[in-house]
Amino acid sequence: MFVNDNAGTNGIVRLIVLLLLAAITAGCAQTPQHAKCEQRESCSDKDRRMAWWREAKFGMFIHWGLYAVPQGRWKGEPIPGIGEWIMYRAEIPIPEYEQLAKQFNPVKFNADEWVRIAKDAGMKYITITSKHHDGFAMFHSKATPYNIVDATPFGRDPMKELAEACRRHGLRLCFYYSHAQDWHEPDAVGNHWDFPKEKGRKDPKEGFDDYMDRKALPQVREILTQYGPIGLIWYDTPFRITKQQSERFVEIVRELQPDCLINSRVGFDLGDYGSEGDNRIPDAVRPGDWETPATINDTWGFKAYDRNWKSVDDLTFKLVDIVSKGGNYLLNVGPTAEGVIPKASVDRLRAIGKWMRVNGESIYGCGPTPFRTLIHRCTTKPGKIYVHVFEYPVVDKKLVIRYLKSDVKKAYLLADPWRRSLDVIREGDAVVIPMPDTAPDPVDTVVVLEFDGQPVIDEPASAPTASAVAPELKRH
Ligand code: FHN
Q: Which of 138, 237, 298 is the pocket-test mutation for ligand 1 (most atoms within 8 Å of CB)?
């Protein structure tokens, strides 16, 4: 915990700190988040289940399905929007969309290669679409023959292969499952072109329970029983379902894999952690457990003509920005119908991995910045602040860290294998660190500040926020 020692508020702050400490020693900090977890399990149980995810910080999202076959075009026409929504956007009738299964033969799929790409990028978990809104199961399902083993010439179960590869390489495998939308089903949500009644369906219970009992819950049972321990189930778009229906999607996970996490998109605030909006990064530190799912270009599912790839600088900044605000980054790749992760994605992930191998200490298991002002993006561990320097050269070759009241015990670059001490000069309310002439890391140079105990920040309430101080950071 960081202490923000504002002039004139010392007494209040100390009182709050004391109260918090008292609450912690009483067994649990009374944050709203803890109050929530206490309702169904002890905070320590929740902390134990969340521990790997809080440590991981960086995961790979994979959107892979039949939509990779048309690659964003239908009958020669480019279909606007995200690739995996092609069936909806082009209102493709089910019998026509089903034909894609016969063409889906990802002979280049290699589970070890995918897992290695994630691992080399520094990612610690993989969340893959076991079934997206199109209703096609990318795993062997007995609930319906509309699945990759029974309906495609490929005939293999890639989830099984990925589960084994993840185990070999030490990553957690997690499953995305579209629980409410299923455009292949008359009783699920979404397909209004084949089933016009869906358009006017008012009562969310109408038919949906049948779909749940016949397909969705049996399939969730399958993904929780066929592939060993699963890190988390990532539900999505809980449109028009009732609280009771969401609860059933929670209960089945708790029953079959009690340690498995659930994201908030199961609905009704029932998950273990929050999924931010797609590609949304909060402006300030956000308490609690949350994750930003994000695209590496502008689509989730493969679209051959989407080449709007984010730069390595941008992706690295986003990773740091998210961690500095308390979140996890779930960065997506959209493999082709042949089973290949596009080279542009792999190149970017490799570059991030290179940065992570040097600077991963400033990401894994880190807490958010202690500063409200966000002049620099900072991440933290007990007794340490990692200052991320994206803007190089720093002014006059000096790194200036304002509002730091505590003395710095030692400062050094994470890029320096010898961890040689940098000079630290106190100038009024700032700590000034002379920096090397050229950036040790062209993307983000990380300076570690070590303290005796927890550093005290003295940030006046009137201190400007990041957008006023460093608008150029907004370019990302
Ligand atoms: O509709 C989906 C979309 O296709 C994609 O899966 C994203 C990922 O977060 N979730 C939904 C939209 O928020």
A: 237
